[in-house]
Amino acid sequence: MNEERFNMDIRKFLKVVGVTSQREIEKAVRSALDKGMLAESVPLKPRVTLSIPELGLQHVVEGEIGLL
User: In terms of CB atoms within 10 Å, which end of the chain has fewer, N or C?
Assistant: First the structure.
């Protein structure tokens, strides 16, 4: 296995995940606030599931995002 390429590909993938996820969260929050569907005082409880079927991997990351 080429460790350097492996690590670089993982980092590229995670960068895309991070950037696109942030955009989607920001867009959804703004839309929900504009429509009155979300109160700024309510923290968001995001959950991300990473799966790699070839490895049988299912990894869940949960967190909290405050708006104030």
Answer: N
Q: What is d(CA 21, CA 38) in angstroms, rounded to the nearest whole number?
A: 19
First-to-final CA distance of the chain: 46
- What is the domain partition of the chain in residue ranges? 3-62
Token pair for 63: 């967190």
pLDDT single digits (tens) 22-54 = 999 999 999 999 999 999 999 999 999 999 999
* Whether the Cβ atoms of residue 47 and residue 59 lie closer than 8 Å to each other: no
- Per-residue confidence (pLDDT) for residue 23, from 0 to 100: 98
Query: Given this model, what pLDDT does residue 51 score?
Result: 98
Measured CA to CA, the distance from residue 47 to residue 2 in angstroms comes to 32
Q: Where are the alpha helices (DSSP H) in 1-68?
A: 3-34
User: pTM of the predicted model, to two decimals?
Assistant: 0.89
